[in-house]
Amino acid sequence: DVKVTQSSRYLVKRTGEKVFLECVQDMDHENMFWYRQDPGLGLRLIYFSYDVKMKEKGDIPEGYSVSREKKERFSLILESASTNQTSMYLCASSWTGRSYEQYFGPGTRLTVT
Amino acid sequence: GENVEQHPSTLSVQEGDSAVIKCTYSDSASNYFPWYKQELGKRPQLIIDIRSNVGEKKDQRIAVTLNKTAKHFSLHITETQPEDSAVYFCAASKRAGQNFVFGPGTRLSVLP
Q1: Which residues, including other chains, have CB under 8 Å from residue B107's CB and lie 6 or more apart?
Q2: pLDDT at residue number B64
Q3: DSSP secondary structure string for all residues of B29-89
């Protein structure tokens, strides 16, 4: 059974703080993704990674960076949190070639005050 | 880049009726179209998908149809039940492992 976990379900940070969101998957997936979910906008891709130490910008990368030092772990970093980054953040992972399906984590609801 | 539109944004049906959600995509190179269901407070989960070499796929009460020429695909749920109430997202992708472009979602409410 595929398991994707995220470090926190709820997080409250202050404007200007550096924020780390962690995602871990246990299925040896090559691909990992970070999405942001806002009402009426669906899931928007922030960054994704096809391999260790590899990253690609998604549709809304501004204000975010990522790190993938190990295959199972993909971190999203908010260098200086702002109130417009208050949102639900979802991590996902998938295989390459074997299946198209993306498996999602439970999400982290981040509030920036 | 790819753009996926989804309609309606909200849909209410009586229990036992059918529900249809429609999506259009812009990139003719897209060849994989999944549908995800997200119940309140839970993670999105794949419920059905279709590849571009297939026109229709069915899984019990759920079916998806694809019209490649018109670049649109639809989710059909028959005999709806209260547990079908959720937000449904369509998406498009070009190949396995590639990132998805999601539609904005449809909130389906099945009224008892």
Answers
A1: B9, B10, B11, B86, B87
A2: 97
A3: T--EEEEEEE-TTS--EEEEEEETT-SEEEETTEEEEEETTTTEEEEEE-S--GGG-EEEE
CA B22 vs. chain centroid, Å, equals 7
H/E element holding A106?
none
Cα B36 to Cα B49: distance, rounded to the nearest angstrom: 9
B11-38 per-position pLDDT tens digit:
999 999 999 999 999 999 999 999 999 9
Q: Which amino acid is at B77?
A: I
User: Contact B46/A97, CB-based, under 8 Å?
Assistant: no
What distance in Å separates the CA atoms of residue A42 and residue B94, rounded to the nearest whole number?
A: 19
Contacting residues of A for B97, CB less than 8 Å apart? 30-31, 50, 94-97, 100
Q: Cβ-count burial of A61 within 10 angstroms (0-12 exposed, 13-18 middle, 19+ buried)?
A: middle
Cα separation values, B45 from A105, B13, B106, Å = 10, 22, 15
